[in-house]
Amino acid sequence: MGNSLFANCCRHVTDLIFQTRSFNSPDERSPLLPKPPTSCTVCPEMPEATQCAGPYPDIIPSEAVTGSLQKCTEYIQDLSEAKSEKRMVTVCDKSCLRPGVGAAGLLRQAEASRAVAVLPADLGEGPAGLVGHAQSLEACQSCVKLEDSGLAHRSCCREEHVAAADGGDAAPGAHPASQSHEHPSGVALMNGSGPHESLKGEKDARQNGHEEADPGEDGNDQEVIVIQDTGFTVKICAPGIEPFSLQVSPQEMVQEIHQVLMDREDTCHRTCFSLQLDGNVLDNFAELKTIEGLQEGSLLKVVEEPYTVREARIHVRHIRDLLKSLDPSDAFNGVDCNSLSFLSVFTEGDLGDSGKRKKKGTEMEQIDCTPPEHILPGSKERPLCALQPQNRDWKPLQCLKVLTMSGWNPPPGNRKMHGDLMYLYVITVEDRHVSITASTRGFYLNQSTAYNFNPKPANPSFLSHSLVELLNQISPTFKKNFAALQKKRVQRHPFERIATPFQVYSWTAPQAEHAMDCVRAEDAYTSRLGYEEHIPGQTRDWNEELQTTRELPRKNLPERLLRERAIFKVHSDFTAAATRGAMAVIDGNVMAINPSEETKMQMFIWNNIFFSLGFDVRDHYKDFGGDVAAYVAPTNDLNGVRTYNAVDVEGLYTLGTVVVDYRGYRVTAQSIIPGILEREQEQSVIYGSIDFGKTVVSHPKYLELLEKTSRPLKIQKHKVLNDKNEEVELCSSVECKGIIGNDGRHYILDLLRTFPPDLNFLPVEGEEMPEECKKMGFPKQHRHKLCCLRQELVDAFVEHRYLLFMKLAALQLMQQKANKQESSGALENGASPENGTADSEKSESEDGKIDDNVTGLDQVKELAETIASDDGTVDPKSREVIRNACKAVGSISDTSFDIRFNPDIFSPGVRFPESSKEEVQDQKQLLKDAAAFLLSCQIPGLVKDCLDHTVLPMDGATLAEAMHQRGINMRYLGKVINFITKTPGRAQLDHIFKIGISELITRSAKHIFKTYLQGVELSGLSAAISHFLNCFLSSFPNPIAHLPADELVSKKKNKKRKNRNLGNADNTAWASMTPQELWKNICSEAKNYFDFSLECENADQAAEVYNLQKITLLREISLKTGVQILLKEYNFDNRHKPTFTEEDILNIFPVVKHVNPKASDAFHFFQSGQAKVQQGFLKEGCELINEALNLFNNVYGAMHVEICACLRLLARLNYIMGDYSEALSNQQKAVLMSERVLGIEHPNTIQEYMHLALYCFANSQLSTALNLLYRARYLMLLVFGEDHPEMALLDNNIGLVLHGVMEYDLSLRFLENALAISSKYHGSKSLKVALSHHLVARVYESKAEFRSALQHEKEGYTIYKNQLGEHHEKTKESSEYLKYLTQQAVALQRTMNEIYKNGSNANIMPLKFTAPSMASVLEQLNIINGILFIPLSQKDLENLKAEVQRRQQLQESIKSGEQLEPEDKAVEEKEAEPSMPSAEIPLTQSSA
C-alpha cells in the first residue's frame, strides 16, 4: 500500500480511532498527530559514533565521540559569537516539563501519543509548505498547572517556531544517513552562512574516509521562518457545574480539550460529549486556529451526545479506570505500562508545596533524626519489606463492591430496538444489588435480578447521561468516596501516573487481594482484539506501520521530530504487543501454523506478528553449535537490526524484532514481510544465502543500499564463491538475506553476523593467535560459533588505529623535514624518506616526540585531506608517507585511512576466490589484532577506570553496561575478574570483584535455571521455582520439592496418568535437584562459560568466601529470570526449614530485549549542552539542555531514561546557578522518572535520591533530606552492601546533615564509616580522606572533644601538606583550624583546672560551643558532592576560557585515544579541592 494511500486511509479512519481516549491497550493505541517542539532550533551535525552512545546520556561520552563533540561545540561558539545578529531562537521557558506543568498537560500528551502517527497526507514543498506543516503539527506543548480548583491550563504565551527550509548543509564527511542535519544548535541562523569547513578532516577520519556532500545541497538557501502564536482563554460551560475558563493554544486540536475535561476533577465522569461553539459542533481533529469565530473569551458548550455500544464500553472502562486510579495492583502485576514509585512516601507529598509549608521554623525544627536500626553503619540485617513501604493512598476508598457486565448481555432484538446497548450488574457498598441498562440516552436502573430478566425501567429509574451520576443517586457512600478519590487523584504528581514507554516489572510485591474487575476479565479473554472491531482492517498491520513511519520525510527539524516520534511510538506499541503474544505462545494459548510438527519446531502467528522458538530447527545451525547457537542467534540478529536502524539508510528496511525470554524459552517476535508466507524461501531470497554460504546470490540494488551502510558499520565489500565456483559480490555477511516484499520494499533479515567474529572464542586450525591472546589462554572453544565482537569494540579499535596512523605519518613527515634540512643544498626531491612502516605497535614508544610536534599532526591531517580529494598538487613523497601509514595500520585504501572488516572471514562453509587471497590474509590479521586489542587495551582500560572511580558500577546490570560501553562481551567476565585479582591495587577494586563474582554466579545459575524450567509443566511452576531458589540460596541442607499432583488428581486417574507420563518426558525431573548438585553445576558452568574457578560448594560458602549478601543474589537472579517473589522477610540461614515455599512465588515475567529508537536531534542538543557546561558557559548550556528536554518530550512523550538524565543535569545547573527551588522541582521529576522507568532500586535511582536530598537541604527541608538519604542508604545496602566507594559519599552526606541538626553521636557513626571506606578505596593519603578527617574533626569540635578533633585535623593537615605543599590554600586553612582547635583545647583545660582548684565558686570563662550554621554545612555538602562554586573575577574567567580553548585545540590535534582526561589542572591552583575529578567542571560529580 503506497504511503499517500495509507495517509489518506488514516485521514478517514481518524474519527474512528478516537476510541483510545482513556485506555492503554498496547494493541490499540491509535495515534493522534504528534507535536513539534516549542522552539525548533536546528541541530548540530554529529558523527554516528555518538548515536549509539550509552543509555545514560549524562555520562559524558568517551573516545570516539569526544573529538567531534568538541569540534561541534567550538563551532557553535564561533557562530554564537556573531553577536550583531539578532538571536532568533528563543528557548521556550515553559517547556512541557517545567514545574508549573500539571497533570492534564502531560496526561493529554501521554494519551495523545499512544499512537501510530496518522500521517499528514500532503506536505507542501519548500518553505511555504513547511510553515503549513509546522502548523499542521501541534506547535506548542501547552503547559498546564495544577490549581486547587481543578486543572486550569495555560499555554506558553509566546512561542517562536524556527524551522529551517529543506536542504541542510551536510558536513562533507557526514555519512548520507545523517546528511539531513542542519546548522548547529542554539545559534542564530544567519541567512547564507553555511557551516565552515573545519569540521572536515577529523570527521572524515572518524567516518573512515570521505563522503562528498550531495551536489544538490547548498548551505546558502537556509531560511528562517518564525511563527508566532499567543495562547488565549476560552470559557467552558458543562452541565451541572459553574462555567470555568481554560487557556488553550491555537495549535491544539479540539481533541486535547476533550482530554483535559476527561481528566479534570469535576468533569472527569463524562466521555460521550461534543464541544459546540454558537451551536456548531467542533470537529475533534480540527486545530483551534482553523475554527472560525473561536477567539479570546469564546464560550464552548459541552453537549451530551447519544451513546453507541462502543461509546458505552468506553464510558464504563473510563469509570473503572477512575475507580482504580490510585490502586497499585497494575504496577505490581506489570500490565499496561504501569510501574511503581515510592518517592512521595518519603517526601510526604509534593516537595514543591511542602517546601512552602515547612518554612516556619527553619533553623531548628524539632525533627526525629534517628534512622531505622538496619540503616546504621555496621548493621548486618537487610530487611526486604522496607523496599516497598505501604503507601497510605493505596488503601483505596471503596466506592463499589462489584461493577461487572451482566449475564443478560447482549440485549435481545426487541430491546435493541428500544435503544438498549448493554446491561451492567452493580453491588453497592451498602450491599444493594442493582441491574443497570446502558441505552443510547444514558444509564438507568432496570428491574432484572440475577435470575429474572425484566428490562423495564425500575421505579424511580433516574436516567442519567453518566454512570457516575446514576451511582451517586443510588449509593451515598459512592458519592462521598468517589469525590474524595478524584480529589486525591488530581493531587498526585503526574509522573506517578503517566504510562512508561516500555513495561517495567517489579521483582517483589506484597500479597494483594484479587478483586472482581469486569474490564480486566474481558481484556484477558478477548485478547483485546474485540475493541478493534471498530477499526477498519481489524488488527494492526505492524509491518506496514513500522516501515511507513521510517519513510516519513526528514529534511528539517519539525519533519524529523514527527518521524522520530512516530517511529518511537510504533516501536513501543509493537514491543508491548509482541511481549503479550510471546507469553501467549509459551503458555499454549496460540495455535501453531504447523501444529503437526513437534513442539520445538512450531511457529506461530498472532496479531500480525510471527513467533518462532529459539531451537535449532532442521539442523540449520548444526555447524555452529546447534540449539546453543539457535539461542544466541536472535539476540545477535536484534543487535544487527538495532545497528542498521541507527544508520537509517533510505530504502533499506529491517523487520520489527523483539526477543522475549519467558519460562525458560526464548521467543523471537518479528513483523511479517508482505507476501513471504505465500512463497518458498528459495524463491524469495535474491541476495545472500539461505544455507550459510553454499548457494549465494547477489543483487545490484542491494549492493547499492548496503554500500551506504558499509562505512559507518565498517563492513568491507568482498567476493565469495558459490556452489558453481562463480564469484559473487556481497556487502554484508553471507547469512544476511535480501527479500523484496510484495510492497516493493527491500528488506534485509538474519543480521546475526553484522559484526566480525571474535577469534578469542573461535579456534581455527592452522591460525596462530597474537602473543597477548595466548598469554591469557585464548583461543578458547566456546559453545557456539556465533561469537561476534561488539560494535563498541569495532569503533574503539578503529579509533585506536586512526591514532596510530596519525602518529606514523607525522613521524615520517618529521623525518622528511629533517632530511630536507640536512640536504638543503641538494634538490628538494633528492632525499627519499626512510620507509616508515616500522612495526605499527612499536612506534607507540615514540609518543613523546610526537606530542611536542603538534604541527606535524596538523600537516598530516591537511595532507590526508588533499590526497583524498585527489587533486594533483601533492608531491609523490607525501603520497608515499600516507601510503606507508595506511599499509601499517591495515587500511583498505592506500590514499586515506579506512579500516573495514569482512564479516565472512572464518565462517564455516564460506570460500573466497583466489584473486582476493592477499586481502583475506590482511583481514585475518586485522581480526587477530582486534581480538588482541580487546585483551590488551579494553580490559585493562576498564579496570583502570574502576581504579580511578570514573566508573562506579553498583550491581550486575551497571557492571555489564560498563563492560559493554568498552566493547567487552559478558563472556569475558571471568577474565576481567582474574585481571582484577592480579592488579596491584587489588583492595581498591574490592567492590568490582564482589559485583563480578555475584554476576558470575547468578549468570551461571540463570543458564541452569533456563533448562531446568523447560521441563516443568504449568501446574508445577511455583513449586519448581521455589525449590530452585531453596537449592540456590537457602542454608537448609535438603529441601524437598512438593509435586503438584497431590491436590487435585483423583485416585483412579492417577494410575492412568502415571503410565502415560512415562511414555512422555518425565515432567518431575526438576524435583530431584539438590543444593549440592546445583552448586556443583554452577561451578562447572562458571568454569566452562566464563573460565573462572569458583571456590564454593554451597550458598553459605559463597557468601563467606566472597563476602556476598544472599539478598543481593536473590535480587540479581530474580531480575535476570523474571521471577516475582512475595514481599516478606526471608530467613536464608535457617538450617531447619527451607527459605521459600511455593506460596512465596507470585509470578514469572518475561525478560524483553528490543530496539530503542533514539531522538537524534534532542540527543545532539543534549551533548552540545553538556559540552557548553564543561567549558563553563552555564547559561548557554542550560538553554541547550532545556531545548533538548523539549525535543525529548516531543519524541518520547513524558517518560524516558534520557529525559531523566536531562532533568538531572538541568537540576544540577539550576542548583549551581543558585535557583534552589527550580533545582528541587527538576530533581524531583528525575527521581520519579528514574523509579518508574529504571526501577525503584536501580543504582541510578539511588544517585537521584542523593541529589534530591542535597537540594532539599538547600531548600531548608532538613527532615525530608534525611529521609531521602536514609532511603538511598537502605537501597544501596540491599543492592550491594556497605563496602562501596559510593557509600562513603552517602555517609558523608548523612553525617553532615546530622551534624547540622546537632545529632553529634549519630553523625560521627556515619562520618567515621565514610572515613574508613574512603581510606580503603582511595588510599589513606588521598585528598578525599583528608576531607573526611576534617569533617570528623568538626563534629568532635562541636562535642568539645578537642583531643580527638586535633588528632583528625592533624591527619588531614599532613595529607594536604604532602600532596599540595605548604603554601596551598587548603594546607593553610587546615593549619589555621589546627591553631583554633589548640586554643579551644587550652581554654577548656584552663577552665577545668580552675574548677579543680577553686571548687564551685570558680570564676569560669564561658566557652564557645558552636552549633554549625546551615550555610557552613551546605558548603561542605557541596564540596563532597563535587559541586564547586568558584568565585572568579571577570579577568579570571577570561583567562579560564582562553585556557580551556587552548587545551581543546591541543587535544584535538593530539586526539588522544585514551579517554580524554578532565582538564582539571586549570583551576586547581585557584580552587583547592582537587580530590574532585574535575574541579573546573562544576557538573561532573565525584562519581559521575
Summarize this structure briefly.
By secondary structure, this protein is of the alpha+beta class. 45% of the residues lie in helices and 8% in strands. β18 and β19 form a beta hairpin.
| Protein structure class | alpha+beta
Mean pLDDT: 78
Indicate the radius of gyration in whole angstroms: 34 Å
Shape: globular
Summarize the biggest pleated sheet: 5 strands, mixed
How many strands in all? 27
Low-pLDDT runs: 1-228, 353-365, 527-537, 826-853, 1047-1065, 1456-1488
Q: How do the strands line up in the largest sheet?
A: 6-5-9-7-8
- Terminal Cα span: 49 Å
Q: If helices are DSSP runs of H or I spanning 4 or more residues, what is the number of helices? A: 49
Can you offer a commentary on this structure?
The protein is α+β, with helices and mostly antiparallel strands and 1488 residues long. The strands form 8 sheets. Strands 6-5-9-7-8 form a 5-stranded mixed beta sheet, covered by helices on one side. A hairpin with a 2-residue loop joins strand 12 and strand 13. The relative contact order is 0.09.
